[in-house]
What we know:
By secondary structure, the protein is an all-alpha fold. It has helices spanning about 5-20, 20-40, 45-50, 55-85, 85-100, 110-125, 125-135, 140-150, 155-170, 180-200, 215-230, 240-250, 250-285, 290-300, 305-320, 325-340, 345-370, 380-410, 415-440.
Amino acid sequence: MGATAHSAIERSAIKKVSVRLVPFVALMFFVNYLDRTAVSFAEPNGMGQDLALTAAQFGFASGVFFIGYIILEVPSNMALHKFGARRWLARIMVSWGVVALLFTWVQNSEQLYTLRFLLGVAEAGFFPGAILFLSQWVPSRHRTKVLGLFYLAQPLTTVIGAPLAGWFINQHGLFGLEGWRVMFLGVSVPAILLGVIAWFYLIDKPADAKWLTAEEKTWLTNELAAENAGKTGADEKSAHGKEALKAAFTNSRVWILALIYFGFIYGLYALAFFLPTIINGFQEQFGTTFSVMDKALITAIPYLPAAVVLYFWSRHATRHGVHTWHIAGPAVVGGVSIPLALYMGSPAATVAVITVTACAIFAALPVFWSVPSQFLTGAAAAAGIALINTAGNVAGFAAGYVTGWLKDFSGAYYLPLFLVGAFMLMSAALMLWLANRSKDHGAHHGRPLAEVR
């Protein structure tokens, strides 16, 4: 078969994967992120007052989700590798949907802590499982593009989800519930429905996809097999259970990437959990008045440009290769911009600077996730990606709890947001160090780390 025919098969196969699988998995991610951050919309719109929450208590409730997630993160991703994405991701969605539904009837801070913890247990493994699933469908040269399309769901969750949450909150009195309780009810049901659909819709590997031609199946299977040869975990006979965990946990690059990811996710969740509360504070700080929907729309503002930047940044990385500055550059911009937001003299200026921070975080994340699967495969990839995401979940807990505690301690958001900036600058420094280390020590089996240069 000639090069032109191979090229046509490649374009056709990648297009079908992008159309058939990525939007559905992105929709799952959309609902996932909306459910885990719904508490940030509820707190300033009645929940904080009804449950008598301090900033530290709300921060703990926000962050304790990640404790449950962390406990089952790696085992869940190993189970996904064993049982297949279709079954395991569907199971996860139904489980977290049921727990999310229970938030509708929470009565006090202790119940809130318990449900947030159980939500983390139920969701454990979804995000790294989705990353692993998509990585197993496309060769590395297309991975940044596919993960970029998938990651669009995260900023769009706030662009669409914030007004949606505001609309639900405005339905105060529906079923005799307060508005914030109606919101929890409204955002939980889609997870259960999507989980049931996922059981029938998802497919574990290209060879089983009826919507691919025989040539496309063969091309994808052969490309992925050739690419995985020589990676850590490529020998499946030795890459299960303890051997896979050892391969991932003893790889120094996995731990460095985990620290880099920690900095990004600390910034992401500090914004996600406290931006609605900061915007609510504009009313006292600047003497303005906002309705529930006004606050929801303002919360959404930074995330629409972030989605646009994410798309074009990952597209550039796909076309020109992943360079160090694709990850380190946004970390520097985010680290410098987020503390500056506190020194702006108006709501518009504050939101504008926060928008820059959001753009920086979301530009880097899909590019970052193209890295681990370039040197890990099989069960080792499942364990390694889960380990890296565990660091992100530690950051998610820390961002919620520490930001709230420091705000109560200092009386303002200056100190906690300077800490956010410091962690993002740490990510930039580690990315630069990792790239130089990779260059100095040569290629892993003849190739540099994830083509970062």
